[in-house]
Amino acid sequence: MSLLNEILSYNEEFVQEKKYEEYRTTKFPDKRMVILTCMDTRLFELLPKAMNFKNGDVKIVKSAGAVINHPFGGIMRSLFVAVYELNADEIYIIGHHDCGMASVKPEGIIEKMKSRGIDQSTIELMDYSGVNLDEWLMGFDDVTESVRHSVDMVRHHPLMDKKVPVHGLVIDPTTGKLDVVVDGYEEQKNR
């Protein structure tokens, strides 16, 4: 049985037995916040549990490394929608220790692309089109500095409501312990 068929088989049972009922909520976050975090599999259940959140409490946006690499990209758009349309009053950017983005090297990813059939001419076309793959695929050296950089990008964005606190944290993916990098409340007091 393929993975898709396995998922669809389970889903049919899930719906028939009305297992969805315990997850019913609205599209608005009860805790009025949005989290940007990493797509790491260890955080899928750990992060909400470590922060005492249940289904419906928060909006969660995920990206590799919890990185915002463009001020007008999809991640920023998601944060704006959460704030301006879905009633999020606070933003939390949460990176994690032992992040895969800390070891990502663009040349390694490009080689893996080629080994899966992406042609060298396509890779060269990216550069010609104005996409610097080395910059776009680059990881980071220090998760704390990466979180701080993303917090600064959000906090100083010209379209962001200045009354919205933007917090930065780093979570341990083994224990769930949170370390504060930027306290958004303190940053607002110091403005």
TrEMBL record:
InterPro entries: Carbonic_anhydrase (IPR001765), Carbonic_anhydrase_sf (IPR036874)
Key words, A-Z: Metal-binding, Zinc
Required cofactor(s): Zn(2+)
Enzyme Commission numbers on file: 4.2.1.1
Catalytic activity line of the entry: hydrogencarbonate + H(+) = CO2 + H2O
Pfam name, any one: Pro_CA
Entry superkingdom: Bacteria
Entry-linked SUPFAM superfamilies: beta-carbonic anhydrase, cab (SSF53056)
Annotated family: Belongs to the beta-class carbonic anhydrase family.
Protein name (Swiss-Prot/TrEMBL): carbonic anhydrase
